[in-house]
Amino acid sequence: MSNDYIECYIKAGKAVVAAKRLAKKIMTPGSSFLEVVNKCEEEIIKNGVELSFPINISLNEIAAHYSPPIDDQSIIPEKGLLKIDIGSHYNGYIADSAFTINLDEDPKLQNYIDAAEAGLNAAIDLFKPGTKLYELGEVIANEIIKRGLRPVTNLGGHELKQFNLHAGPFIPNYKEKSHNTILKPGDAYACEPFTTSGVGKVINGKKAYIYRFLKKKTKNIPYNILNYMNKINVNFGNLPFSPRWIEKKNLIPKNKIQSILNSLIGKNIIDKYYILIERTSEPVAQFEHTILIDMNGKTIVTTKE
Fold first, then answer.
1. Which of 100, 101, 159, 285 could join 112 via S-S bond, C-beta 3.0 to 4.6 A?
2. Residues forming the active site
3. Can you give the pTM of this predicted structure?
4. Which is nearest to 162 in space by CA: 3, 7, 2, 9?
5. How many whole angstroms separate alpha carbon 276 and alpha carbon 22?
6. What are the Cα distances from residue 257, in Å, to 22, 33, 130?
7. Torsions phi, psi of 150, nearest 5?
8. Domain edges within the chain
9. Do the Cβ atoms of 225 and 217 come closer than 8 Å?
């Protein structure tokens, strides 16, 4: 890992920290989801980096993948657990970090947040060359379970590579020995414990608000669809994107955006991310940092304030 590589992660991480600080100020009851996300995404761009995925702002039993659609009317409520997951990249090197707000300071819900943060900190302490990924999962689960909660077992951390948000190996949030990849110098991961009082599994919801370009196709594709396909590919590459970004960049007329996306999905040109909901509809909390190991074995947390 060169120093330039490390500096790219750190620069991306600083932008994410700036957006997190802003989010903590403006994520208040009565504020709109759309306003929060737009302002935080603008903050990332203002810091000289690019967005690596649409900001997620997920309430209560929605664990992940809610990003406000165009003209979203959702308002932050008076109580509950509100998660915000923020990502940026610089030259393709991605920083990914999340936290959860306890909107009415409910002590019971605060336990979910404390458990997720404790699990993450325990994993960071163990994040060094020679550690197996399932060993991270074990210490994460221990911190969560001793607080009377469960980790979400079918969500977890992920390796990061240049322009690749989910690059391969998975950090489980419990001890699962099949995840036996060994950490080594040069590795970068997003580590993200999720906690709940439910069964600890998420299922797909019915709606999706985040998309990702998969591959170009030209055979039997109408010219206008080819044109839109190329615009999406050029602007977003293979990183996740929001229809809001399409509207902002004027890539597709607003009244056609969803129908064009549906057409591209039908042709397996793009994919969509369904919202993820805790199976028993219990609240979920999340904490996440990006962690990398330099060539000397030093652990660097790029998004930890």
1. 285
2. 85, 96, 158, 166, 192, 288
3. 0.95
4. 9
5. 25
6. 30, 21, 47
7. -120, 145
8. 3-204+278-301, 205-275
9. no
DSSP-derived letter for residue 162 is T
Q: Do 61 and 255 touch, CB atoms closer than 8 A?
A: no
Structure tokens at 225: 């669809």
**What string of pLDDT tens digits covers the 305 residues of the chain?**
457 889 999 999 999 999 999 999 999 999 999 999 999 999 999 999 999 999 999 999 999 999 999 999 999 999 999 999 999 999 999 999 999 999 999 999 999 999 999 999 999 999 999 999 999 999 999 999 999 999 999 999 999 999 999 998 999 999 999 999 999 999 999 999 999 999 999 999 999 999 999 999 988 889 989 999 999 999 999 999 999 999 999 999 999 999 999 999 999 999 999 999 999 999 999 999 999 999 889 999 998 87
Q: Under CATH, which number does the domain 205-275 receive? A: 1.10.10.10
Torsions phi, psi of 185, nearest 5? -55, 140
Which helix (H) or strand (E) segment holds residue 58: the answer is strand 56-59
Report CA Rg, the chain: 19
CA 239 distance to own-chain centroid: 12
| CATH annotation of 3-204+278-301 | 3.90.230.10
Nearest Cα to Cα of residue 133 among 154, 114, 159, 155: 159
